[in-house]
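Team,

Forwarding the record for the chain on the shared tracking sheet. I've put the sequence and predicted structure together so nobody has to dig through attachments.
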Amino acid sequence: MAIDISNKDLQAYYEYLRNTIFDPESADIDFDELSDDDHRDFAEALMQFGKMAMETREFAFNLSRGELDCIQPSRGNEIAAPLKSLHATLKHLTWQTKQISCGDYDQHVDFMGEFSDAFNMMVEQLAERRREMEAEAENNKKHMEELAKTNSIFEAITSSMEEWIVMIDRTTGERLFANHSPESMLMSDTFDKQLYDILHDYAASLTSDDEPRKEEFTLISDRAMQHFELMLYPIKWFEYDALACVLMDVTASKEEYSRLEDAAYRDVMTGVHNRLFGMTLLDEYTANHTPFELIFVDMDMLKYVNDVFGHAEGDAYIKSVADILQEVSGASAVCRLGGDEFMIIITGAELGKRDMNEAFETLRNKLANTNILDENGQPLYHRSISFGIIRVDELNTLSTSDILATADERMYEYKKAHKQERRV
């Protein structure tokens, strides 16, 4: 049945439809303003349509913003039916995505065309990546287990070794492994920090391409001194760029070497340095043009003492001369060259501080006070020395033998000049 609509009513319906689209809050039809009550059913149907359209519009807007928990259109709104279906699909896809994020890669989409293909390909790639990561993790686990087993064997072997093996991180200096504790290897509590500072410095100076290197160092405190030989090996230790430090305590051997070296340079009878030490030092000073003063000393009447009073008294005479000569202030070395000959070398700060002729005259007089007396209070023999002195500066061109020969000549000149003082 045709409906006759006046212009006024038509304008009201137009305004309502327009507001439904552009100003939903103002969309309304005033039934009292309609010109014919017969239009009420049409107006109500139009408003029902407008309400569904506005619900659908709001629903679509919420979906576009991803607000899946929004209020859905009323049950009878068939206009929104496709959007309701899309909403259900998006809710299910959201759930599937959450399942995938939890590791469930069995999820598939079969009802959304190209999106389904892309989605399912993504899930398959994620599943493949997971399988690869699981295989890699399993390999890493086996590798770490093998490393741990190897490390246990390494620790068991190295724990019985005399050498001290220390692993440190070359970058940070962190201690990664040690087969012995510092307390069991170091002589002083203060050595621990000294040691690791030294090792860290070595670590910082080496790269993984460097060859193994041998070093020596000494730890010093107020109460102890400890010598080490060190072998350095840049290596890979688990995930670390490490430095393997193999330390050997050589303190005992160093001390023994020092003792043997000292013994090799000492005169057994007197305890002063021997000819080897004196000549070595003299050669060194001459070669380096070091200024020094050399005093050549010869004991007077030693042969007579040995012949008349025996070698025991002769030895006592030699020792008394050695004791007197060691009183020379600032002497670099007092050396017995052999028999009745001694050599004294003065250098450094004491050089030139006093007249050595006066100093040795004083020693000569002091030696006379050690004479052995007979029952009448008279000396059995007169203990005395003759000496010759030579001063050598940095411009010296004489050889070692020339220097000794000059001092020897001056000694004999002194001996001849004082011959009358010596009597039996």
